[in-house]
Structure formats: structure tokens, C-alpha cells
Design brief:
The chain is an alpha+beta fold and 263 residues long. Helices cover 17% and strands 47% of the residues.
Length: 263
């Protein structure tokens, strides 16, 4: 079996084209950074009845995710760079709906991708009890669930304590991605994340979108404006339109090709 290891701002996955048997098991096995290849999970790419391609996302713990903003950019690079399509505008089927990709290329290779992520749904802030005290979060849906917490300094964000506690908090029936966000200025946010099913990751595309949406609701940022979200792995450009559609622009990169023997 052949996998391609790719990353979007350090959010790394193993990409497989075709029908992968037992993807949950393979993701748990191969994602291990000591006994496997090492990744945040596996993303499979296949045919779709309604879109150009279909993607499925499996976290490092084997659970299936609905959407991954960094992962979908790499899907666009994968199918274009490997010759599965020559289109620079693609429709990708995901568990959170169809997403539109616009590919930017240089030298025949994709370097950057803009994704229309669909519409955000921002709820009113709530205060939740955790083992580490009360935490005020803003629930946001980007097709997958997020809990955004504004902090004074993202570098000190309690990812492994509060973040981990929020992931399985009873308020969120299916778990949640926990983002800790520092407002730098009206066009810049610093964000760190504890991802549902994967733990700390270098970047989360849907989390960056959710963070900007929550910041707009709180009055920290503006609609129809480019907001740079600084993640551990790099920067994403996010714009929330007046109709709540979110546009995300960022890089996608290939790391290596991997060959795995079937057990």
C-alpha cells in the first residue's frame, strides 16, 4: 500500500487514493510517531457521485472526523500534482458537505489553496464547569464542532488540561475541538488547539475559521476583512463574508512517499 505524507502548516496526514480496508485500524497503527510512520491521521481520497472527489478523515485514534481544513487543501494538491485532474477549481465531498477549492499553482505544482468552507454558525458564549475551574467558551460549528476560548496569552494556553477536558465535556455530545485564541489586533489572531481525536496539533483549519467567526461576534474582528490566524505551524488567511460563508487560504506541502506492507 502506498501513502503520501503531506501537511498543511504542520497538520500532517497520510493520504491514500482508493478504497482502504479497515482505515480506522490503519490510522491508529500508522499514525503512531514511534512505531508507525507518524501523523495526525489518515485521509482517503476516492470518487464521488456529486463532486470531483470524496475525502474521508480518520484521526490518530481511529475515529472519523467530519472535516479538516488543512487536510482538504492537501487533497487539492494531491489530485492535481499526481495528475488525477487538471482542474484548478474543485468540488470535494466531505461529511460536513461539499467544499469548493481554488488551486494556485507554480511550476505545475499546487502551492496554495483557497477553500470555501461553507457557513459558520456561532452560538452565544457559555460558561462550563471543568476540573480546572469555570471556562467561558463560544461554541461554533464549521460543519464540525468547536469551542473557542479567548485568552491573554496563547503561548500559555492550557491545552493538555482545559483543552483535553473540553474535548469530552458533557455539553458537547459528540466531543469538540478546543481553540485558545489571543487577539493581537483587528486583523491578527494567535491560536492554539486541542483537536478532538488527535490532541495537540500544529494547526487546525476549521479551528482557525471558527476562531475568526467567534472573534467577529465578540467585536474583536470585522466581517469582509482578511484576518491572519497565527498557528504553531504557520499562518492562515481567513475571511468571513456577510452571509457567514468562510474563506480559508493557506499552503499545502508534500513530505514523502511511503510504502507499507499489508499485515
Amino acid at each position: 500500500m502506498r501513502f503520501t505524507k503531506m501537511h498543511g502548516l504542520g497538520n500532517d496526514y497520510l493520504y491514500f487514493y482508493g478504497d482502504l480496508k479497515n482505515p480506522e485500524e490503519w490510522s491508529r497503527k500508522l499514525s503512531d510517531r514511534h512505531f508507525g510512520i507518524g501523523s495526525d491521521g489518515i485521509i482517503t481520497i476516492g470518487s464521488s457521485d456529486s463532486a470531483d472527489f470524496k475525502m474521508r478523515i480518520f484521526n490518530a485514534d481511529g475515529s472519523e472526523a467530519m472535516m479538516c481544513g488543512n487536510g482538504i487543501r492537501c487533497v487539492g494538491k494531491y489530485v492535481y500534482d499526481k495528475g488525477y485532474t487538471d482542474k484548478k477549481r474543485l468540488k470535494i465531498e466531505t461529511l460536513s458537505g461539499e467544499k469548493i477549492l481554488s488551486l494556485q499553482t507554480r511550476g505545475g505544482k499546487v502551492t496554495e489553496v483557497t477553500v470555501s468552507m461553507g457557513k459558520c454558525v456561532v452560538e452565544s458564549p457559555v460558561t462550563l464547569d471543568t476540573a480546572y475551574g469555570e471556562v467561558k467558551v463560544t461554541p461554533v460549528s464549521m460543519g464540525n464542532p468547536h469551542a473557542v476560548t479567548f485568552v491573554e496569552n496563547a503561548e500559555d494556553a492550557p491545552l493538555t488540561t482545559v483543552g483535553k477536558a473540553l474535548e469530552r465535556h458533557p455539553y458537547f455530545k459528540n466531543g469538540v475541538n478546543a481553540e485558545f485564541v489571543q487577539v493581537v489586533d483587528r486583523n491578527t489572531l494567535r491560536m492554539r488547539v486541542w483537536e478532538r481525536g488527535s490532541g495537540i496539533t500544529m494547526a487546525c483549519g476549521t479551528g482557525a475559521c471558527a476562531s475568526v467567526a467567534a472573534a467577529i461576534q465578540a467585536g474583536f474582528c470585522d466581517t469582509e476583512s482578511d484576518v491572519t490566524v497565527c498557528l504553531d505551524g504557520g499562518k492562515l488567511k481567513i475571511k468571513v463574508l456577510a452571509d457567514h460563508t468562510v474563506l480559508m487560504t493557506g499552503p499545502a506541502a508534500s513530505i514523502c512517499e511511503c510504502e507499507v506492507e499489508e499485515a
